[in-house]
Amino acid sequence: MRTLLLATALALFISFFVIANAVVASGSMEDTIMTGERVICNRLAFVFSDPRRFDVVLFDYTHSGRQVTYVKRVIGLPGERVEIIGGQVFINNSTEPLDDSFTREAARGSFGPFYVPEGHYFVLGDNRNNSYDSKSWEEPFVPRDAFLGRAVFTYYPRFIWHNHQPQV
Q1: Interacting residues of 167 by C-beta distance below 8 A, sequence separation 6+
Q2: How many whole angstroms separate alpha carbon 42 and alpha carbon 119?
Q3: What is the CATH number of the domain that holds 143?
Q4: In angstroms, rounded to a whole number, what is the distance separating the alpha carbons of residues 13 and 20?
Q5: Nearest-10 Cα torsion for 27, 30, 33, 34
Q6: Rounded Cα distance, 105 and 144, in Å
Q7: What are 99-115's pLDDT values in tens digits?
Q8: Is 12 domain-assigned?
Q9: Which domain holds residue 49?
Q10: Is residue 40 included in any domain, yes or no?
Q11: Is 153 within 8 Å of 52 (Cβ atoms)?
Q12: Is the pLDDT score of 168 beyond 50?
């Protein structure tokens, strides 16, 4: 009995404080993470460091009065200017677009500019034209404290390691 209780307590501790297990409910991150795939996220990833550009993150976001958990990619960092012009992402008035060759296709249209406030992030899905994300939201920025973790790997039905750099 003691072993069962210890195992249960350890599993609950890991589940609530170390990892987050998420099922991706939409195609917004395809082809990086497909609809229905299961992802393990590191809840401790942002305890001692800030989210970085290209991190695939799990976070809670409230819209239309209800809270939803999303998986998206960090694109804009605090203090940056993000603009999408003709489907290409530009950071801080750069003349070179962001390397987002990992996306399914370029976003149709132009959006922004968006000025990311301190303590907030601008996120996009990798399937840009089928993603409800920062470019579409009335409040386009995700507060840092909404992040639940960084995606580490997809484990079902296929296994893929995720890192913060684009998968090209």
Answers
A1: 32, 102
A2: 20
A3: 2.10.109.10
A4: 11
A5: 50
A6: 27
A7: 888 888 888 889 989 99
A8: yes
A9: 2-161
A10: yes
A11: no
A12: no
* Number of domains, the chain: 1
The band of 56, judged by pLDDT with boundaries at 50, 70 and 90, is very high
Q: Any idea which residues carry the catalytic annotation?
A: 28, 72
Range among 61-65, 120-124, 125-129, 136-140 rated most confident:
120-124
Concatenating the DSSP letter of every residue in 59-97 gives: EEEEETTEEEEEEEEEEE-TT-EEEEETTEEEETT-SSP
**154: enclosing H helix or E strand:** strand 147-156
Closest CA to 167 of 55, 52, 41, 44: 55
- Give the residue from 44, 57, 80, 65 showing the smallest Cα distance to 146: 57
pTM across the whole model: 0.86
